[in-house]
Design brief:
This protein is mainly α. It contains two helices and no strands. α1 runs antiparallel to α2. Keywords: Membrane, Transmembrane, Transmembrane helix.
């Protein structure tokens, strides 16, 4: 029997888990940039959010 379906299933599961973790990180940083009372923390969170959502090709 071919191993390919198993490998594809595992790859899809890993991609889904990675996407979910990335989304959770972006949501957490975005929430802290909005909800933090300390201006320095908000500024740091916005800078981190900019790094996380930076797209290739934009300068």
């Amino acid at each position: 029997m071919s191993v390919l379906p198993s490998v594809l299933h595992d790859a899809a599961a890993l991609a889904a888990a990675t996407g979910l973790a990335y989304t959770a990180a972006v949501v957490t940083v975005a929430a802290s940039s909005v909800l933090s009372r300390n201006p320095e923390r908000r500024r740091d969170a916005r800078a981190t959010l900019t790094i996380l959502v930076r797209r290739r090709g934009q300068r």
